[in-house]
Design goal:
BH3618-like; globular; disordered C terminus
């Protein structure tokens, strides 16, 4: 399948590897289907979620492990059903990244209060907005 992207141009992508966000992402509720783009290295540090519906929408993402972070939070029964999770072992957690300014040398920050939870087997995901209640984000020294 061909995907259009303002960031990457035209991309050939295996349709079976698309990730579906049934409710979209906050602020991008019309974008449900994303391709995961990553550099061809053995251990990529940075990935991109590229919207299939909107070529202008792409988000850099990374594993929280890259920042020495460990998440502990609970998904509701509705959230578990939405992405078909039956075990935490099926879940992958990623964080969105954003640049703190318009210049290429502006610092990049992880959005820690809204991780992505992805069921890689079913290719379903959601963004979990966390509050101080019922959430533990631990910073581990590396």
């Amino acid at each position: 399948m061909k995907i259009e992207s303002l960031r990457f141009g035209e991309i050939d992508f295996d349709e079976a590897k698309l990730i579906n966000f049934p409710k979209g992402l906050p602020g991008f509720e019309d974008c449900h289907t994303f391709a995961t783009i990553y550099p061809e290295t053995d251990a990529p540090v940075l990935y991109y979620l590229q919207s299939v519906e909107d070529p202008a929408v792409s988000f850099p993402i990374a594993s929280p492990d890259r920042f020495g972070l460990h998440y502990e939070f609970t998904l509701s029964d509705e959230e578990l059903a939405l992405i078909g999770l039956t075990s935490s072992d099926e879940a992958s957690v990623m964080v969105l990244l954003r640049r703190e300014g318009e210049t290429p040398d502006a610092p990049v920050r992880a959005v820690l209060t809204a991780p992505l939870v992805i069921n890689l087997d079913r290719r379903l995901a959601l963004q979990k907005t966390l509050s101080q209640v019922g959430c533990d984000i631990t910073l581990h020294a590396s």
